């Protein structure tokens, strides 16, 4: 109930201001958190190992930064989110609106013709939910980028990973990016509760969901970036394979 109430009040513009403007998105140094995340993704895709027809971004929120490094390695990318306000924010970026999230030429290559799709719910909470913007998708060609979803408890996090794994072809890849030690974050009037995860929780959840962890990187949030919009201790990046 707390999650549902929080997401009903979720403000994507406030979320973007809190996390994707300075100080967290300061590009004067690679030691800030957003450049760190971009570097993790760029290095992973630069290896050439993760490529294919379709990449599915599960839980995109109102952002596409996480997709930029993948654009040259996939024919199409599906950005998905449960919240209509986030899908609308992504749509404004696709349509070239001044307030949308698409701010770079690289981002433009990630998009196909916009269209609503209906797919199996990655979290298993409903049989079907509308999730994004893309032409028709064949789910059995599905390497995947997965941002850590908010789950009510650790067991639900494991179940969500398992459901998401059902969208992957055998041997498919999942790239997880999420928070460590976080119990809440703010998005305008919304205060979203989060189950705090440690590195050991991530390792155990992936193993329980049938994934082999390839690597686990972590970033410790410095005092200057602890701005009160959350209580995050750090960020993890975990490439895994089914």
Automatic annotation (TrEMBL):
Keywords: Methyltransferase, S-adenosyl-L-methionine, Transferase. GO terms for cellular component: cytosol. This is PNMT methyltransferase. Pfam families: NNMT_PNMT_TEMT (PF01234). One of its GO terms (biological process) is methylation. It comes from the Eukaryota. Belongs to the class I-like SAM-binding methyltransferase superfamily. NNMT/PNMT/TEMT family. GO terms for molecular function: phenylethanolamine N-methyltransferase activity.
């Amino acid at each position: 109930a707390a999650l549902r109430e929080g997401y009903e009040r979720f403000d994507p513009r406030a979320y973007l201001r809190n996390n994707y403007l300075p100080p967290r998105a300061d590009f004067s140094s690679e030691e800030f958190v957003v450049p760190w995340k971009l570097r993790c993704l760029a290095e992973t895709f630069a290896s050439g190992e993760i490529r294919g027809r379709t990449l599915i971004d599960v839980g995109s929120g109102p952002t596409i930064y996480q997709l930029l490094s993948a654009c040259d390695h996939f024919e199409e990318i599906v950005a998905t989110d449960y919240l209509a306000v986030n899908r609308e924010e992504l749509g404004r970026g696709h349509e070239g609106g001044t307030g949308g999230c698409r701010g770079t030429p690289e981002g433009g290559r990630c998009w196909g013709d916009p269209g609503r799709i209906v797919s199996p719910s990655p979290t298993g909470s409903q049989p079907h939910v509308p999730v994004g913007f893309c032409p028709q998708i064949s789910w059995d060609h599905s390497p995947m980028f997965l941002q850590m979803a908010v789950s009510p408890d650790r067991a639900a996090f494991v179940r969500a990973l398992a459901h998401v794994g059902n969208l992957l072809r055998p041997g498919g890849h999942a790239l997880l990016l999420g928070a460590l030690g976080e119990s809440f974050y703010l998005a305008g009037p919304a205060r979203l509760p989060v189950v705090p995860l440690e590195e050991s929780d991530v390792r155990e959840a992936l193993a329980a969901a049938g994934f082999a962890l390839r690597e686990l990187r972590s970033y410790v949030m410095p005092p200057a970036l602890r701005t009160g919009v959350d209580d995050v201790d750090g960020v993890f990046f975990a490439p895994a394979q089914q």
